[in-house]
Amino acid sequence: MTVLATAAGTSRTLRVDRPVPLDAIIGHLRRGAHDPTHRRIPGGWLRATRAPTGPALLKIITTEDGVRGTAWGAGAEWVLDQLPALVGAEDDPAGFRPLPEHRPLVEAQRRFPHYRIARTDAVFEALSASIIEQKVTGSEAYGAFRRIVQRYGEPAPGPAQQRGSVAYGTMVPPEPRTWQTIPSWTYLRLGLESNRSRTLVSAAGRASALERTLGRPLPDVDRGLRSLPGVGAWTSAEVRQRAHGDADAWSIGDYHIGKNITWALTGEVLDDDACEELLEPYRGHRFRAQTLLGLMGLQRPRHAPRMTLPTHTPYAQERHRRIR
């Protein structure tokens, strides 16, 4: 990578011998359309994160021969060093071969041959957001995440603090000790009931140990994550997908994904056990198969009413009153 440091931030250009589909790669990291930590911009993305060396704002745009990253803040050097992993340059799809009978997956690989899996190297960041998404609808989870980050995070450095900049308003997630100090009743008002907030506070106390899982064998990482109270197979998979770049960590236990995969590959809506059987030939790349099918927009037909939000939080209760 070439490096250029200016008053407008430190930039590095990463040359890659293939197109880099940033929307597919970075888009998976965003927690809903209004996530204050990620923003799509013309030609690329903004990502606000908390590096081991401090908060950082990273701007990533595509170039003719790769990507260029520009970063601000105490964590700027770290996020630029991590840029190849973030844009999937270290992901290896070798060995992934869709079966001929799985025609949607064959077509997905043909249409998205340059898709690669991001690795953020930010374990607690991925875990905290995934805990918030446990056992609730996406809209409720994304809303709670946004409210917590906006209240307890901090403005991202650099142009994020300059009104009128495309980065204005982006936020760095709270540091682990801040998550620990938020009272349970405040979590409830922001959209998190006691089970999830307890899991989150407990995980925040293990944040340093969680970061040490980077580079460890992935089965060990899975066991370590699932040893935490309130963290099961689904949450572990969601973390490993993002923080560790685990190409095999398919979202087992998700309400929709197993059904969507089985419908896409067989025409029938089946359970997670059947989905695991279907994905077995892709072991080592099961999350890759899941994502490629998702990029195709393949979702089972839905004939039932949409799920309604639980009513155990003040925000959900207010929404329930409005839509009744």
UniProtKB/TrEMBL annotation:
The keyword Hydrolase is annotated on this UniProt entry: no
GO molecular function ontology, one term from the record: DNA-7-methylguanine glycosylase activity
InterPro entries found in the cross-reference section: Alkylbase_DNA_Glycosylase/TA, DNA_glycosylase
Domain of life: Bacteria
Gene3D superfamilies in the record: Hypothetical protein, domain 2 (1.10.340.30)
Keywords: DNA damage, DNA repair
Coiled coil residues, start to end: none
PANTHER family attached to this UniProt entry: DNA GLYCOSYLASE, DNA-3-METHYLADENINE GLYCOSYLASE
Protein name per UniProt: 3-methyladenine DNA glycosylase
